[in-house]
Amino acid sequence: MQTVSDFYDSAQRPPAMLEELREVWRYRDLLAQLIERNIKVRYKRSVLGLAWTMLNPLLMMAILSIVFSNLFRITLEHYPVYVLSALVLWNFFSQATLTAMTELAWGNSLLQRIYVPRTIFAISAVGTGLINLLFALAPLAVIMLAIGVPLRPALILLPVPILLTAMFALGVGLALSILAASFADVVDIYHVALTAWLYLTPIIYPQEIVPAHLQWFFRLNPMYYLLETFRQPIYAGVLPALETLAPASAIAVSALVIGWWFFARNADGLAYRI
Amino acid sequence: MDWRTASDRDAAIRLDNVSVCYRMPRERVASLKEHAMRWLQRRTQSDEFWALRDANLSVERGQVVGIIGKNGAGKSTLLKVIARVLRPTTGRVRIAGAVAPLLEVGAGFHPELTGRENIFLNGALLGFTRAEMRAKFDRIVDFAELWEFIDAPLRTFSSGMVARLGFAIATDAEPDILLLDEVLSVGDAAFQRKSFERILSFRTFGATILFVSHNLDAVKSMCERTIWLDRGRIAADDQASAVVEEYQYGGLGLETRQRAAGPTAEQRWGTRRIEIADVRIKNGNGAEEAIFATGDSLTLEIDYWAHQPTAAPTFGMGIHRHDGVHLTGPNTTFSNFPLPTLEGRGTVTFAIPRLPMLEGLYHISVSVHATNDPEMYDYHDRCYPFRVVNANGCRERYGLVSVRGVWSHTRR
After folding, report:
1. CA atoms within 13 A on the CB side of A50
2. What is the dihedral of CA A204, A205, A210, A216, to 10 degrees?
3. What residue ranges define each of the domains in chain B, with the CATH number in brackets?
4. Is residue B124 a contact partner of residue A36, using CB atoms and an 8 Å limit?
5. From the CB of residue A170, how many other CB atoms can be counted at a distance below 10 Å?
6. Most exposed: A100, B96, B131, B182, by fewest CB within 10 Å?
7. pLDDT tens column, A39-89
């Protein structure tokens, strides 16, 4: 039985961030089960099940390809791969952060009753997103081969941008979930913000369609760097350039540290709400 | 840990001056937009609510302790502090041993998952590994009597079935410390008996049990020791039967002692031309008393202080039952007891030869006002409590009062 460690002393407490890490490790079995549950529940509810994870970005890609190449006359080589590679990463980020909010809302009633490390809900949301991302990479590979984008050795580096995006998503998810636990409108505001963010990021359009004097705007966008580090190995077959990889890493680490700190600072208050 | 090697080596739970303060926003701010606006205007105000104040407690290993008190007295907060769910605002909590708190019925379950999947998920929430849960699985399903449904989604379960499953999972362990919050009301009568027996069986393992309940008989029969919480403070901590009896009949506890100190600002109004300086409730022997039996005599003494000569005032009193029922409201004018012009200090006495009301908590109000115009000099609203208990041979239980009627019988 390891419900609560055998000795507990409220006066002797390691720093909140470290304590939380240790506890998450102790509850790793719960983490695995929460992720498993999220995957199971998702596929139980839909007829297409697992196939949906792969079909969804594919359909999106098909629509965007038709719209952009026929209406806007964007002639970008291998546009489907350009857009799909960014979409799967974007979907991972948006789903992970949104799930972090709903997970903590579900867990909140539990937190009034039992001790569970509280970051575990956001971590399981990101974990669930990672699994779904892996599933979505399969159709991406198929499309690449189908339209003649070779699978090049630079792909070996893909885990790096995925890990960085996961860290960024966890930081954002932690901060948002604790806000959403207090304020009902956070989820709605975030939905709107996500849509705006999607269109402000060069995901479905090439960066070059924006006039040169406005290019600086992309450089304020954390997701821009993460997307570029992810897309370069897939689309161009080259290793991510240092001028995108360095800011991407800095963004991921600082988002995680700030998000975790903000969460730990406010998490004790969760159980006080009555 | 050092403190366990000391004299209190066998303490499973130790609380030193533990207080818990909830912050309650003065107005409900549910949206971020609103909160941001208030914050910008520096208008985020919140009230403090001390759910637990200066609680000192030491529970030996193997003790079964009941916790009683009214709603909002801090019982659940006490359990939460011990379960590590709440961190104390001040003070220190030390726990030696694994704590297994009971889940609220249905919390932590997911409706789309099957009973089987939910058992594993719930177990993980309680800190068990998958391997441990596999070993427990059969016992849990046996106890919950849910073999037929175990692979159906939980949303198809009745609420009673969900409750049984939750209880079976949470108690299938041999925890060192078990926290029970009103759980004996789960399921039907047969299942209640079964759960009661299971809790009793923990005692034989030597588990420390904290048992919150409104069922005073259950507390008396299960616990050796009982803690009575009153507005966040430990009002009594002693042998179970003594504390339960004190709670039920006797002591009005802190509430009485605090209120007897006099009215609060909201309980008092009037011009104070004549001030009511002190009020005493006395029994037939002339001693101050807070507990009476139906049929006892009660004397109310009202000390006044007339700051200026005041002609013919009227003194009155009223009795309300704790639920607000107004029982009576006599005054000196109704009783044709004219008072002279009053100046300085004095005492007006109202004697009730036989209290007619049945068991319950009552509050006395006192007043002094002008007889012929509506000026209220001083009014103390329901701030002098006393309790009437079932004793002295009065066995009536129904209604408000005993009319002291006499039965007779003749045969035709």
Report:
1. 7
2. 50
3. 2-16+53-248 (3.40.50.300), 261-389 (2.70.50.60)
4. no
5. 26
6. B131
7. 888 777 666 666 777 777 788 888 878 777 776 666 777 888 888 899 999
d(C-alpha A83, C-alpha A63), whole Å: 11
pLDDT at A163 over 90: yes
Neighbouring C-beta atoms of residue B286, cutoff 10 Å: 10
pLDDT tens, residue by residue, A218-257: 888 999 999 999 999 998 888 888 888 999 999 999 999 9
Structure tokens at B125: 């929430």
Domain limits of chain A?
A: 16-272
* Interface predicted TM-score (ipTM) over 0.85: no
From the list B116, B124, B79, B113, the residue with the least C-alpha distance to B99 is B79
Beta-carbon contacts of residue A153 (< 8 Å; ≥ 6 apart) = none
Residue type present at position B341: T
Contacts of A123 in chain B (CB under 8 A): none
Answer whether B121 touches A (CB < 8 Å): yes
Res. A3: pLDDT tops 50: no
The token duo for B6 is 């000391």
Contacts of B130 in chain A (CB under 8 A): 29, 32-33
- Please state the φ and ψ torsions of residue B71, each to the nearest 5 degrees: -60, 135
Which amino acid, A109? S
**Residue A30 sits at the chain B interface (C-beta within 8 Å):** yes
Q: Which secondary-structure segment (H or E) carries A109?
A: helix A79-111
What residue has token string 């000391």? B6
Q: Which residues of B touch A32 (CB under 8 A)?
A: 130
Report the alpha-carbon distance of residue B317 to residue B57 in Å, rounded.
42
Task: Give the single-character DSSP code of A217.
Answer: G
Q: Using CB atoms and an 8 Å cut-off, which of residues 159-198 of chain A contact chain B?
A: 179, 182-186, 189
Q: What pTM, to 2 d.p., does this model score?
A: 0.68
CA B203 to CA B219: how far, in whole Å? 14
Tokens standing for A219? 């450089």
Handedness of CA A99, A104, A110, A116 (dihedral sign): positive
